[in-house]
Amino acid sequence: MAFYITTPIYYVNAEPHLGHAYTTVVADVVARLKRLKGEEVFFLTGTDEHGDKIVRAAEAAGLSPQEYVDRIAEKFRRTWPLLHIEYSRFIRTTDPAHKRVVQRVLDELYQKGELSFGEYEGLYCFGCERFLTPKELVDGVCPDHRTPPTPLKEANYFFDLARHQEWLLDHLKGHPDFIQPPGYREEVLGLLREPLEPLCISRPKSRLSWGIEFPFDPRFVTYVWFDALLNYLSGIGYPEDPSWPKWWAAAEHVIAKDILKPHAVYWPIMLRAMGLPPYRRLHVHGYWNLNQAKMSKSLGNVVRPEDLVARYGADRVRYFLLREMAFGQDAEFSEEALVVRTNAELANDFGNLVFRTLSMVKKYFGGEVPSPGEEAPEDRELAEGVLSRVQAYLEEMEAFRFHRGLALLNEAVNLANRYVDRVAPWELHKKGVQARLSRVLYQLLEGLRVLAVALSPVMPRSSEILLQNLGLSPAEELSAEAALSWGRLKPGGRVERGPVLFPRLEKPLFEEEKPSEEEKMAENLYPLEEFKKWDLRVAEVVAAERVPGTDRLLKLTVRCPEERTVVAGIAEHYRPEELVGKKVVLVANLKPAKIRGVLSQGMILAAKDSSGLKLLVPEGEVEPGAEVG
Ligand SMILES: Nc1ncnc2c1ncn2[C@@H]1O[C@H](COP(=O)(O)OP(=O)(O)OP(=O)(O)O)[C@@H](O)[C@H]1O
Ligand SMILES: [Zn+2]
């Protein structure tokens, strides 16, 4: 099966930062997952190099636009391998082949009558490089750039989006997973409720010459978005290369929410006008924030990926990025969080399992894979526990729910750690129960093998080292089948202890590693004996929002039937907007408590298992305030 994944082409008006790295790591992880499953993958990334802002950035750097874009594109291209990102092709919109595709498409659309020429008088934002509608202005200024737009009267070419609006609406309705997660699909449906304005797709050369010339009117260059989106086709050799239709039929784009409209509205309509099918899926993520503000080159609050890699290593950074952000939602970046998270889950949990298993095999069996011998019920339980979580992990990862997937894998690690503690191999050794010891260590080595394969898309280098230490060849072992089967290690094989995979980092004094007392309270960890005294009621959620500065807490306003606020530790499992209108079960007679400055008057009940956390909800219509019991 073929799979085609893309990142946005990044605008080269500044160097790459962690936001760009996140999208590109996500695409790389998914590409590796698909390869693990035996799929044939094309992974495209690159740079967007035309437009006003590039000219100005080049001037500021004292370079010609071409020199400037060459330099920054090179910077992007060199950054990705540092993060173990392996793309199939790096495309630049200044590539002659890409320019030819853009001109060809313009010609074609012009001939088909999809473009019109006309005078337009409007308000132009130079930051956005486009005309804004009066409705888009906030207090007379561009909401993104906080500057008043310039009145401009210009003749230009326009692309009539409204002509295909009905079609797009139908397509969205007929394909619920076209745009994911669902909140963004809703947003796009919202955009389509109003008639779409014609898109101005040309810029007069008198004002801007750094762009792709219009093939049938040399007075104009192409609007940078119209040019940029076509990279997804030119990147796979459209229209000459015979393999492009195979990739295009399997196209999935990954973007952040800032560029939702061009990808979810302009692009499918451009494809439609060209007579091509739309892409298969659009995956939209939120922002990495630094000190509560979007990490952005314009604000200058950026983290450089190469600095993080130098300090922590690529695999730790990759793991953190995927584990910490719930795909679709925003997340706050801090090095403290990176250290705390990876110390807990990689150094303590996983690293410890690896280290003690390999040490015991070395000590008790001279570094040889012991024979499995007879299986005890607890051995089977471990194997089944690990494999079922790995299976669920693979499913979550393929659905872009990376943080949940990795939480499941961490559970598998800890099943193995608890198994070690319970069977205490050192006691078996002391007692001389050799056959049992042999099975136990075989189980643990198998656990490591399965985890190493499963983790390979996220942490390719560490996975490779671990497989080599297990005496295996990564090239042969890397398959989904190998991650889902037990008993592949051959007794007698050589095992090396190797270096510590994830050394524990000096823990900065920043944050507690465990949830605070307040957060535990919000996570429903009340002692059991209290339970009987609780007043349980049905409550309807009327509003929900994140508690600022936290990743797990939501502030809910509920009716039961009077209104009150409740803080719940469920932000990693529910988006605020999904909760509004839901009826939930509330513990109504708790002493109110302040949690992160928000008064919480009760507690919402939820159930948790390996697939995540689910709220308890009444099965039919129930009045808010109804007693539960
Ligand atoms: N803070 C961020 N969090 C997550 N992804 C980001 C972030 N900033 C940029 N990206 C990624 O880069 C894409 C936008 O690329 P582009 O080069 O246009 O960046 P930009 O918006 O100009 O950057 P900036 O916001 O730094 O000015 C986003 O769709 C996303 O893939
Ligand atoms: Zn603007």
From TrEMBL:
A motif ('HIGH' region) lies at residues 10-20. Residues 530-629 form the TRNA-binding domain. One of its GO terms (cellular component) is cytoplasm. A motif ('KMSKS' region) lies at residues 294-298. It catalyses: tRNA(Met) + L-methionine + ATP = L-methionyl-tRNA(Met) + AMP + diphosphate. Gene3D superfamilies: 2.170.220.10, HUPs, Isoleucyl-tRNA Synthetase, Domain 1, Nucleic acid-binding proteins. The keyword Cell membrane does not apply. InterPro entries: Anticodon_Met (IPR041872), Met-tRNA-synth_bsu_C (IPR004495), Met-tRNA_synth (IPR014758), Met-tRNA_synth_2 (IPR023457), Methionyl/Leucyl_tRNA_Synth (IPR015413), MetRS_core (IPR033911), NA-bd_OB-fold (IPR012340), Rossmann-like_a/b/a_fold (IPR014729). PANTHER family: METHIONINE--TRNA LIGASE, MITOCHONDRIAL, METHIONYL-TRNA SYNTHETASE. Homodimer. This is Methionine--tRNA ligase.
